Every structure is written in structure tokens, then in C-alpha cells.
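lol forgot to send this yesterday, sorry. C-alpha cells for the thing we talked abt
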């Protein structure tokens, strides 16, 4: 073949045109609905806890004296804190936050890193390039535009995935600490341990996020890469075990990615429903407590 000559595949032309006979559109359509709902929910909740004038009836966190609003269930000082607002930042109570930024919901600071981690994840890229950008529409399905420039320009940000991964790993101990706070009940000098439904919801959230983060392709490379000998030294054997563990999780990375996202949102919704009288839910203590 002479250099420079390309032979286009014999594909049908026109958005969505294809010779495929299966229901190829179902996956991307379901994915765009799923991701769309998750993004809208997280954005709405972030705005809900802010003190925008337009949401003045909603604004709970930013106004001094509002406490933690619908961000956390308080049961005898055992906090069940929403992962969207963890670590807890109540703007009016922290002098390090400039006054002119105090109208912003804490979620908008906190979610930068988890959102960056998911947004640059290899699996999510595939999902949302297809679902939202039609790049491609599907395998062997014609898309609305011809050009393809790869992950260049603004999309170079995808190269930051490894660094978002480091930040995301830091959230795991923070969220584990939230589970710990949820089992410590206090009243005056009295202290007791207890487990509520909220504790279990938080715990499952940490497990799901751990499965997602430790199965990350970048994490797998960090623990297993740059290694020529996996049996000769103790460090080599540890690396091998970690790599095998990460590989096991990586095989189901899609499932971890999708289910953990749902569970983060459900955890937040549970806490919201238990703290807003509109729903009338309460967090049932299953064992112990005060
Ligand atoms: S590749 Fe999905 S989280 Fe890193």
C-alpha cells in the first residue's frame, strides 16, 4: 500500500445509520439517562445547600447559625454525614474561608476531586463520549461529524487522571472516619457505641468507593508498574499481590464505577430524606446508641 492513501470502511453515512441489526442504541441511551440524572441530582443538592438569593428558602449551610442543614443526621452527636459534603465545611464557621466565598455550597469545593476522578476515568470516558458527544455514536454506527482529533486541546486534562486518583484515595480514610463518627453517640459525659441504618449506608458507600478506586487502571499501574521482579524481593511480592488484587477489581471496573456512583447519590438522598421534614424519614438505630 502506498503511503498516504487511506481506504474508508464501507459504512453507511448519516447520523445513526448502520448495518448493525442489534439494538446498539440502547446502551448509550440508558447511559445518558443514568449519568444525566446523577449529574443533575448532585448539582441540585450542591445548590440546595448554598445561600444563593434565588434559593434563599433552601440556603442552609452558608448562613451562620444554620448548622449542618440537610448535610448530616445528628443523633446524640453521632453524625451521619453525606459523602457529598464530607469533610464537613460549614462556611460561616470557618474563618479561613473568605467572606465573599461563603455563599458557595461546600459540595462545590469537595466534589472537584471526586468529579475530576470520575470525569477522567477510562471507563467513564468511553461511556460519556458515546452517550453525550457521539464520539463515536457506536461501533460501526455513523456519527454526526467526521473529524476526530483524539484527546487533544481541552481534553488534555484527561492526562491528569493519575493525580485525581491520588486525591480520590485521600477521601477513603475521610469517609471511613465518617463511619466511625456515626457509631459514636454522646450525651453530656455519656458515650456509647451504636449502629444505625445510616451507619450501614455509609459503610457500604466506603466499600463501593474502595472497590472503584483500587480497581482504577492508574492505581493498578502505580502498584504493579516499573517492576521487573515480582518474586525475588519482599517488596516485589507485595507489589505482585497488590497488582493481582487491583486486577481482580479492574475486571469489573465498569460495575464498580456505575454502582458506586449510584450509592454515593443514594447515601446523600437517604441523609437528605432523614433530615428534611418533607419526607418524614428517620434514621433507625439498630443496635446500641443512647
Ligand atoms: S480508570 Fe476508572 S477510576 Fe481510574
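and heres what i got for the seq, position by position
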Amino acid at each position: 500500500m502506498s503511503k498516504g492513501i487511506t481506504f474508508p470502511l464501507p459504512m453507511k453515512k448519516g447520523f445513526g445509520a448502520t448495518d448493525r441489526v442489534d439494538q446498539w442504541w440502547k446502551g448509550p441511551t440508558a447511559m445518558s439517562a443514568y449519568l444525566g440524572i446523577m449529574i443533575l441530582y448532585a448539582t441540585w443538592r450542591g445548590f440546595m445547600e448554598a445561600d444563593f438569593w434565588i434559593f434563599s428558602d433552601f440556603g442552609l449551610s452558608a448562613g451562620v447559625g444554620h448548622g449542618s442543614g440537610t448535610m448530616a443526621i445528628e443523633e446524640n452527636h453521632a453524625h451521619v454525614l453525606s459523602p457529598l459534603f464530607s469533610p464537613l465545611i460549614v462556611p460561616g464557621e470557618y474563618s479561613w474561608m473568605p467572606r465573599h466565598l461563603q455563599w458557595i455550597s461546600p459540595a462545590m469545593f469537595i466534589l472537584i476531586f471526586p468529579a475530576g476522578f470520575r470525569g477522567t476515568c477510562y471507563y467513564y470516558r468511553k461511556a460519556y463520549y458515546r452517550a453525550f458527544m457521539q464520539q463515536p455514536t457506536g461501533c460501526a454506527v455513523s456519527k454526526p461529524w467526521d473529524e476526530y482529533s483524539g484527546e487533544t486541546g481541552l481534553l488534555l486534562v484527561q492526562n491528569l487522571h493519575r493525580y485525581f486518583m491520588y486525591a480520590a484515595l485521600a477521601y477513603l480514610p475521610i469517609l471511613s472516619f465518617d463511619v466511625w463518627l456515626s457509631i459514636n453517640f454522646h450525651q453530656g459525659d455519656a458515650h456509647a457505641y451504636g449502629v444505625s441504618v445510616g451507619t450501614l449506608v455509609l459503610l457500604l458507600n466506603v466499600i463501593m468507593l474502595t472497590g472503584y478506586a483500587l480497581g482504577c487502571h492508574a492505581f493498578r499501574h502505580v502498584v504493579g508498574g516499573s517492576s521487573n521482579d515480582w518474586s525475588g524481593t519482599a517488596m516485589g511480592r507485595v507489589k505482585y499481590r497488590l497488582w493481582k488484587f487491583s486486577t481482580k477489581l479492574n475486571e469489573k471496573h465498569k460495575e464498580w464505577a456505575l454502582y458506586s456512583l449510584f450509592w454515593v447519590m443514594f447515601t446523600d438522598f437517604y441523609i437528605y430524606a432523614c433530615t428534611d421534614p418533607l419526607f418524614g424519614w428517620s434514621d433507625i438505630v439498630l443496635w446500641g446508641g443512647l
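Residues 53-66 have pLDDT under 50 and may be disordered. anyway ping me if u want another try
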